Inverse folding.
């Protein structure tokens, strides 16, 4: 591996435009800025949490063009021209998403720290597989850690949301 | 926290290579960043420049090219796992890709980045070794193909030259009556032991026509174990079944396992033996003429 260098690096600003929860933002970011810091500290959206900081726990999960990423280890400029969804953008017109409702109804969270990441990851799963088995849920969600260990309730919540979403789509 | 660096965004391999040649060790190629940014955040390593190669067109292609499967270095783990070409032709590779790290890392991390960073606890290098893959490295004026066995030099160290960039991976199609199995074990986020086996049987399915064995994660770099392979080649199934424990012992001894957080050397060597035995039975079942794995299957 290369040695650690101590030379001072001059600042560089990258102008980016990105959509966050449906709203277009135009901001300048430095190359080393992380998406999590931009979202939390500069835009005030604090649903995504910094926890393990090494892409293992999933508390910082955001959706980038609908796919889950660890925003703690994603450079902010990578979001240029793309759509970011945070947990704050999931409810539509004041109505909670079926996953949010199911997590409340089935006790899918205890302390709540992992919950935004859990729900956004589960949304990706249901978007690509509307009728997952319990095993498929466990496999897909294995990168999201709940230290209250409420996994059973989380899985029940996702199964319930899938059922509810399927029922409402078949009514349309 | 990340220290400040400058970002360069070349649009060709030549320009990227020129940046590397000009800035030497103060610059590093950046693709998914899932490995590199972790060590930079820890302050273990610092670069003045990162060279983002994701704007170079065509480096993420997955295609059949002149009878060889070409995997672009910038293809993400998710892209590889969902490729219909790979699902048909290299299902063992697909199954490995589906189990790399977690969904978020697979979404951003690239195969080329995984190989170039050469973190010892990784899956792809070990599987590519038994698949007989070659890695394509390019720079300003030339390109070369490197067999996987020659690519890994040590932990976090490859044979890539300072101004070379890994651009793709070329994997030959599997012959008929053959299969690949990859089994791994670990209780931490990263795998502790990985064993890959390519097996081909003769037309009647009675004897082992060819075998390739590689062990990864246990030591500094994935390692091909030819001594264990030669024990199986040309043997009938019953004899090979009797010899597989011995082959596993040889593979464990030759794997350069080290004692660390993932387990002691003895423990890892034992797991190599267990996994090779399981891989043998799995692959043998799949490469039978009537088996579902003809042409290479399942990990």
């Amino acid at each position: 591996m290369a040695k650690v260098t101590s030379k001072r690096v001059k600042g560089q600003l990258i102008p980016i435009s990105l959509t966050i929860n449906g709203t277009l933002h135009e901001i300048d970011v430095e190359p080393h800025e992380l998406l999590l810091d931009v979202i939390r500290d500069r835009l005030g959206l604090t649903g995504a949490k910094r926890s393990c900081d090494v892409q293992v726990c999933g508390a910082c999960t955001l959706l980038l063009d609908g796919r889950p990423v660890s925003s703690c280890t994603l450079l902010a400029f990578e979001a240029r021209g793309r759509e970011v969804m945070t947990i704050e953008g999931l409810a539509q017109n004041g109505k909670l998403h079926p996953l949010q409702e199911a997590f409340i109804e089935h006790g899918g969270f205890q302390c709540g720290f992992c919950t935004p990441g859990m729900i956004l990851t589960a949304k990706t799963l249901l978007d690509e597989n509307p009728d997952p088995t319990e095993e498929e849920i466990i496999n897909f969600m294995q990168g999201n850690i709940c230290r209250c260990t409420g996994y059973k309730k989380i899985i029940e919540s996702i199964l319930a949301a899938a059922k509810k979403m399927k029922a409402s789509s078949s009514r349309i | 926290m990340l220290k400040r660096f400058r970002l360069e965004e070349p649009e060709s391999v030549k320009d990227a290579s020129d940046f590397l040649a000009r800035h030497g060790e103060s610059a590093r190629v950046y693709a998914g960043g899932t490995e590199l940014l972790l060590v930079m955040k820890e302050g273990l390593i610092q670069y003045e420049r990162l060279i983002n190669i994701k704007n170079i067109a065509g480096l993420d292609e997955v295609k059949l090219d002149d009878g060889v499967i070409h995997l672009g270095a910038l293809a993400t783990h998710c892209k590889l796992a969902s490729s219909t070409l790979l699902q048909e032709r290299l299902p063992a590779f697909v199954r490995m890709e589906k189990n790399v790290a977690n969904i978020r890392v697979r979404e951003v991390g690239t195969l080329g980045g995984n190989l170039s960073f050469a973190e010892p606890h990784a899956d792809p290098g070990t599987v590519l070794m038994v698949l007989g893959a070659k890695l394509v490295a390019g720079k300003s004026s030339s390109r070369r193909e490197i067999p996987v066995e020659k690519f890994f030099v040590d932990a976090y160290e490859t044979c890539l030259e300072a101004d070379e960039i890994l651009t793709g991976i070329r994997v030959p199609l599997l012959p008929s009556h053959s299969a690949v199995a990859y089994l791994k074990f670990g209780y931490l986020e990263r795998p502790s032991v990985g064993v890959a086996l390519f097996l081909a049987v003769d037309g009647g399915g009675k004897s082992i026509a060819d075998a390739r064995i590689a062990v990864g994660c246990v030591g500094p770099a994935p390692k091909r174990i030819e001594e264990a392979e030669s024990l199986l080649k040309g043997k009938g199934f019953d004899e090979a079944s009797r010899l597989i424990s011995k082959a596993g012992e040889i593979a464990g001894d030759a794997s350069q396992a080290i004692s660390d957080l993932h387990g002691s050397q003895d423990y890892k060597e034992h797991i190599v033996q267990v996994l090779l035995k399981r891989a043998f039975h799995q692959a043998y079942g799949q490469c039978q003429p009537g088996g579902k794995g003809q042409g290479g299957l399942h990990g």
User: Anything to note?
Assistant: Chain A has a mean pLDDT of 94. The domain at 98-167 of chain A is CATH 1.10.150.120 (DNA polymerase; domain 1). Chain A has two domains: 14-89, 98-167.
